[in-house]
Design goal:
Order of helices and strands: HHHHH
Shape: globular
Strand content: under 5%
Radius of gyration: 11 Å
Oligomer: single chain
Distance between the termini: 19 Å
Length: about 70
């Protein structure tokens, strides 16, 4: 599995059987915002990342461990 945050978000969403639209609705952001997170164009705020973790039933460490983005 990739260590990129964008890939981790996408993988978690898919494992939770959520569409980008479903996840966006849960976070009160657009489907395009989720797409931007998953493509690496933008990074979610810590608050959004917490919500992503909750909605996908993943611990925060799933998203934060071994991330080497500069």
């Amino acid at each position: 599995m990739s260590n990129l945050l964008s890939d981790k978000i996408k993988n978690a969403r898919k494992q939770a059987n959520l569409s980008q639209k479903d996840l966006g609705s849960a976070l009160l952001v657009s489907e395009k915002a989720i797409s931007s997170y998953e493509s690496g164009r933008t990074k979610p705020s810590i608050e959004a990342l917490i919500k992503i973790a909750q909605k996908t039933n993943k611990p925060m460490s799933f998203f934060t461990d071994a991330i080497n983005e500069d």
